[in-house]
Amino acid sequence: MYGIIATWRMALEGISEAADMLKKSADAGDSIETAIRAVEDFEFYKSVGYGGLPNEEMEVELDAAFMDGDTLDVGCVGAIKDYANPVSIARMLSKEPVNNFLVGAGAEKYAHRHGFERKNMLTERAKIHYHNRVKETTENTELKPYSGHDTVGMVCLDDKGHMTAATSTSGLFMKHAGRVGDSPVSGSGFYVDSEVGGASATGLGEDVMKGCVSYEIVRLMKEGKTPQEACDIAVNTFDKELKKRRGKAGDMSLIAMNNKGEWGVTTNIEGFSFAVATENEEPTVYLVKFDENHKQYFEVASKEWMDNYMATRTAPLVRK
């Protein structure tokens, strides 16, 4: 059995490529890296990689992580600038005996030393988003981070039972320079154990980090819960805990897959989508919906929804 699951519709092309690799017995590490890089390289996805939205100083700072479920090796980068594929840098860091989590200038020096591609990640399209956002904010109003924070996170299983997890994001639009969210933090933005399964998160990193939700999902699967049961328990319990203690809970959407290729997804927001491909299922995008009792269910994205999604993201922008 093999499979790959990812947050958001933007992962579809990447997981489709990974699924083709997995069909041919490719390694879970190579497959997930390929899938994440496809998202990083597509400039119209404004929350990851090239074309990612900048911080308040109009600089694109990227976070990424890679974890090997066989060895539990982890590699992470935070607030790295001017490098094309931070997930690949994170994967190389996972093979180092120490110094596995590098940030800012240190991460950039490591990437340069190891020959990674330097690239200006700030696109003209992202500049227009930035300037329009600044203009929308009056002089008397503090410029606050945009609420969108669509991390691409994935969990992958190959036909040899090897599992991996990886993430990549440009984080909050208009964030403070140097801000790092949950995405590159082991146990929060991701976690994987080939003997059990893996999970990955997208949402408001400052809140996801308060609960180590990805690790909690894997722990619950280890106790015998299905991926869906584990996601439901971990996300809904922590959502309630945050609301009890703080009066509110930020966006949290978690995906999971176990070492049998079974998957689960739970979110506390409207409008979440995810993509999955397994030995028994072609690459598919699902939308998470809620019934009148606020019980979630999944619906395959329609062609109309898919067409509108891409049209919206590639539509020309005008500077206001």
From TrEMBL:
EC code(s) of this entry: 3.5.1.1, 3.5.1.26
Any Pfam family: Asparaginase_2
Domain of life of the native organism: Bacteria
InterPro entries reported for this sequence: Ntn_hydrolases_N, Peptidase_T2
Lineage, opening ranks: Bacteria, Bacillati, Bacillota, Erysipelotrichia, Erysipelotrichales
Binding-site residues for substrate, renumbered to this chain: 179-182, 202-205
Enzyme class name: hydrolase
Keywords noted in UniProt: Hydrolase
Protein name: Glycosylasparaginase. Threonine peptidase. MEROPS family T02
A cellular-component GO term for this protein: cytoplasm
Species, as recorded: Faecalitalea cylindroides T2-87
Signal peptide stretch: none
GO molecular function, one term: asparaginase activity
Active site: residue positions: 151 (nucleophile)
Site annotation Cleavage: residues: 150-151
